[in-house]
Amino acid sequence: MDQQQYFQFYEGSKMGIKTADGQIIIPAVYDFVAIPADDLFTVTEGGYTAYFNTDGDVVLSFSNLYESYGNFTEGLARVMRNGKWGFINREGEEVITPRFYFADEFAEGRSIVRNENDLHGAIDTQGNLVIDYQYPVLTGFVKGYAKFGDLKTWGLIDATGNIVVPQIYMSIGQVYRNKVTVQVLEGEEYKEGELTIGGGVGWNNNLDHVNAFNRQKTQFADAAEQLIDTMYRNGCPCEYERFRDYIQWNSPVGFVDQEILFSAFVKKLHNEGDNNFRCTHCGTVYEQNWEQYSAFMWVLNVTIKTTGKFKNKGAPVAEYRPVALGFYGHVIEKYTNKYLQHDIETVINYLKQP
Ligand SMILES: [Zn+2]
Fold first, then answer.
1. CA 159 to ligand 1 centroid distance, Å
2. Fewest CB within a 10 Å sphere: which of 91, 133, 302, 346?
3. Residue pair 211/192 in contact by the 8 Å Cβ criterion
4. Rounded to the nearest whole angstrom, what is the distance from the C-alpha of residue 236 to the centroid of ligand 1?
């Protein structure tokens, strides 16, 4: 598209195109109008597709010759016939015969295509397969490079298909001035660095805090498992008021210590179904609910549904509970008046205090 900005607008359920200063390029009488990278609008109406230029004139008239029509990029639009994708040019001529199981829009002279075995390669604007079908995942080209991989590890190829970064990284950013941020998992440790294409990686310590936290979580899980084993040797954890208080959580904020403690505890409980878990020693039933708080955040809520038969043998709940791993979420301040940051040992000793 040229410098002018274009906007879709509606009248009723119909769509058209306007400029920023309100000039109507395409009246709102169509089902859908797309604004692609090239200067041709894709206009659909009643199962037919046409292409209009920026003066609002029809360049390719309405047609349903193909089952599907894409947007023009780099002078070509993808079209589907008999379930296979090919390309037409701005004159409407079929310049790449539909034969691909999938073909993406052209970018940087390449279209990512897929074969019947779900492997991806790339074609040039003549339709030649310039990168052979070999990748489970292949992204479009940006600044001369495309990411390939299997969703677990990624590498980079150039426009001729040469591997310029091997497929060993769990994450690869956007190439900028021949450099790109990469992340790798070595054993249980994450590492981040800046890779120079054709050169080495300069590692940084950006992920050290993630590794430290993960190590602490593993330590807490081990300690929680030992604590629960010890408590079961002479009864059960339910007998400890502090344990019951700590494990019960019903809040939008995540509580890492509680989540790890209950994850260790639930392995010892009998699954009654419906998210209910029963202590076979005393009969206490715990209800577990993972609740989605936001797009990326789930919170483990636990309540005691039925209190079993036991005698309290632990110390009463303290005014301030120790917490080793803390909380995550948005209203954490609310909990700081009941919890104090300590190490793992302090948390475990607090819970088992007679
Ligand atoms: Zn119990």
1. 63
2. 91
3. no
4. 5
